[in-house]
TrEMBL record:
It holds the Pfam family EamA. Its main location: membrane. Residues 12-144, 158-293 form the EamA domain. SUPFAM superfamilies: Multidrug resistance efflux transporter EmrE. Keywords: Membrane, Transmembrane, Transmembrane helix. Belongs to the EamA transporter family. It is found in: Membrane. It comes from the Bacteria. The keyword Membrane applies. It is a multi-pass membrane protein. Gene3D superfamilies: 1.10.3730.20. This is DMT family transporter.
Length: 310
């Protein structure tokens, strides 16, 4: 029986912040590498590497991946949604900036918060938590609002792909929580997703006429290696484990940190200016996360029982 916690503890928060920090960097890695390595071919290499790493990990730890446990339908669904998300991300980064794509990608918590309570009533957000969620997203929008006024048709195409990727990410989370995958190991849950993506993306790459090759610069291979080992393997495995033990709606609110990390990395690595707008956005996200993750007050009868026990 999986022990599910009702709130995020220090360990969960630390892991979430670390994952969000890397995911903020990851969008920059993909954007810079897609200039040299075709997008879906890049995704194919990355996911194939992640499948191998995850298989070796499970072999070493004795985690079964191919036993019959009723998770296949949910696993295939999650895998197809995950594959769709990454196809949209890689293709979208050809037509829009990493920062804009990240804003739309992180609309995923709204899909989770809107639909997950239908299957898990305990995940229902209360009024002030919805306000916190909206405040966090508002902070993200504020951070990138300077670039929203002048959109070309090509950029709008990239933005639509980014929005689709956010929806698919949210639906992937729902499929994990609302199917038999909720009882599967974190390793098996992730294996379904990376394996299906590794199988689908090469065909998508061929359909789009991408040119395959391996003669890339050391910078490009280094980027793909980091995306594979830390991104598609370590960080996603951590996310799957967290989903099995902590409330998904509270976790999703933390993902709003990722686009702000992406902007911060832009400041540090690309010399972009640190503006007042960014500072206000960080404050909005921080306050929103606090509101979403604030613990529910005990019911009156529980308080009375506690006082009597004392």
């Amino acid at each position: 029986m999986i022990e599910r916690k009702t709130h995020l503890d220090t360990r969960a928060i630390s892991l979430l912040v670390a994952c969000c920090a890397f995911w903020g960097l990851q969008q920059i890695l993909i954007k810079t590498t897609v200039v040299e390595v075709p997008p879906l071919w890049q995704a194919s290499i990355r996911m194939a590497g992640a499948v191998l790493l995850l298989w070796l990990w499970c072999r070493a730890r004795g985690v079964p991946l191919f036993n019959r446990d009723g998770t296949l339908p949910g696993g295939l669904l999650a895998g197809l949604l995950f594959a769709g998300e990454f196809c949209c991300i890689y293709l979208g980064l050809q037509d829009t900036t990493a920062s804009r794509l990240t804003v739309f990608l992180y609309t995923s918590p709204f899909w989770v918060a809107l639909f997950l309570p239908r299957w898990a009533p305990s995940e229902q957000l209360r009024g002030w938590q919805w306000v916190g969620l909206a405040l966090a997203f508002g902070g993200v929008m504020l951070a990138f609002s300077e670039s929203f006024g002048h959109s070309s048709p090509r950029q709008l195409h990239g933005d639509l792909l980014a929005l689709a990727s956010g929806m698919l990410w949210g639906l992937t989370t729902l499929s994990i929580r609302a199917t038999k995958l909720a009882t599967a190991s974190a390793e098996k849950t992730l294996f379904y997703q990376v394996a299906v993506t590794a199988a689908v993306s090469p065909f998508m790459s061929l359909a789009l006429g991408e040119t395959w090759g391996f003669s890339y610069s050391a910078m490009a291979w280094g980027s793909i290696a980091v995306q594979t080992v830390i991104g598609a393997f370590a960080s996603y495995l951590t996310w799957m484990w967290l989903l099995r033990h902590y409330p998904a709606t509270q976790m999703s609110s933390f993902t709003f940190l990722t686009p702000l990390f992406a902007l911060a990395f832009g400041v540090m690595l690309l010399g972009e200016p640190l503006t007042l707008r960014l500072v206000l956005a960080l404050a909005g996200v921080g306050l929103g996360i606090v509101m979403v993750n604030r613990r529910k007050a005990p019911a009156p009868d529980v308080k009375k029982a506690a006082s009597k026990a004392a």
